[in-house]
Amino acid sequence: MNKYYIGFDAGTQSVKVAIYSLEMECVAEKSYPTTLNYPQSGWVEMDVNEYLEACKKGIRDCVTQMKEKGLNPSEVRGIFGDGIICGIAGIDENGKPITPYVNYLDSRCQKDVEELLSKNFDIWAKETGNPTPNCMFPAMIARWFLKNTKFLENGCKFVHNAPYILMNLAGLSPKDAFIDWGTISGWGLGYNVYKKEWSDEQLKILNIDKKYLPKIVKPWDIIGNLSQEMAEFTGLPAGIPICAGAGDTMQSMLGCGLLEKNMAADVAGTCAMFCVSTDGIKEELSKPENGLIFNSGTLENSYFYWGFIRTGGLALRWFRDNICDKVGEDSYFDKLSKAAEKIPTGANGVLFLPYLTKGVGELANASGCFLNMGMDTDQATLWRAVLEAIGYDYIGITDIYKKGGVSLEEITITEGGSKSNLWNQIKADMLNTKTKTFKKSGGAVMMNVLTVAYALGDIKDLKEVIKNNLEINKNYLPQKEKTDYYREIFETRKMLLNSEMKEVFKILEKVK
């Protein structure tokens, strides 16, 4: 009998579903786009039921693909999904959403964040590794829901998008709502990262009742089985085991091979993230001025820090859809990059500021813009400026890591952005570090499949199997002359952002 496993990734821009064999051969895959709504400036909303429907249809389509290949869907052994760690929705006692799904792209909590910041609680850094509140944290989003929606009247639980999908696939009720021990750290505040439990003291400060929070489980715990209703819709047999799942960032870290401390990865997804693995909270990195986020990983006793550009990958989609008018045409990214290869390093002096959903910290009111354009500025130049913009912010993040004593000898690049040779080389040049990609680019989805196989006992040593599946595809070596040039521009850009542009952003916010 063959063994197959279903993994899905409920990301910001799409839901990806795939079926793999035990030998890690992808036998079926399907992706459905998601919808981002912008009801007002700084707000970004989604529909958690859209995630559920996309996943259901994705599984159904993958099952159809299996049948077309003569494979037997009854040989599917289990289901495991990952989702966004910084994003929640509120559901009622019937399991229906009563709030929009709000994630890390949203800034509606900024005033509340500033109020909490003024109180200077030291428990945040001590128990979570995150020294300050942040408007992208679900803890802050939950506070907003409690204050500004009808959640207090009808609400039952706050849930993340992947657990919402998984509990619906299993036909669970809200009282069975769950969250895995890695995704809980996506809350940013309200929990103890070492004990893997909600923190009563923090929740009291946050004024969040623990009854609204899901129970904490291990990623590979079996939380239920595929219901008859979902079996009929998807074409799978009822009763297939369903795991608790994990956070997208955590699974991406596994896919990057961050299995030991002092390893680095660039998760080139919607929220561009630069991560380093550690053996726990590091005081020199958990300082407010650093702006880093600390999380626990999927595996036991695994931890990592990450710096981020909220609209990193989303800026690429925005440029393709809104500027190039090529909505949904993924192949156009390749066309843009091919043209941008002919543009000199530094994009002919054009700078892009990728703060399309505002910035963070001292640049909270920042906005996206192009600077220094001329009559010779064309689409390829602007595209290169967009790619380089993410790299400039990465330089700032890696400077913090290096100052904190983290060695950055090489960086693994994963997720959608890793497919661009141009962007991979730009990052190597900008960060003065060798970058690499892997041959198997399944990313988080492939890690989900490995984890469910582990949960079912079909894999005995998860870490070892992950290592064996990480074969290098290509290395990119930094070019010193370009590294020096980018550093010079970075310092100029930093000066602009920290002085003149601060006042400009204030004025522009009033205009907007």
From TrEMBL:
Keywords: Kinase, Transferase. The keyword Transferase applies. It comes from Fusobacterium necrogenes. CDD domains: ASKHA_NBD_FGGY (cd00366). Its EC number is 2.7.1.17. GO terms for molecular function: D-xylulokinase activity. The gene is xylB. This is Xylulose kinase. Residues 4-255 form the Carbohydrate kinase FGGY N-terminal domain. The lineage of its organism: Bacteria, Fusobacteriati, Fusobacteriota, Fusobacteriia, Fusobacteriales. It comes from the Bacteria. Belongs to the FGGY kinase family. It is an enzyme of class 2 (transferase). Residues 268-444 form the Carbohydrate kinase FGGY C-terminal domain.
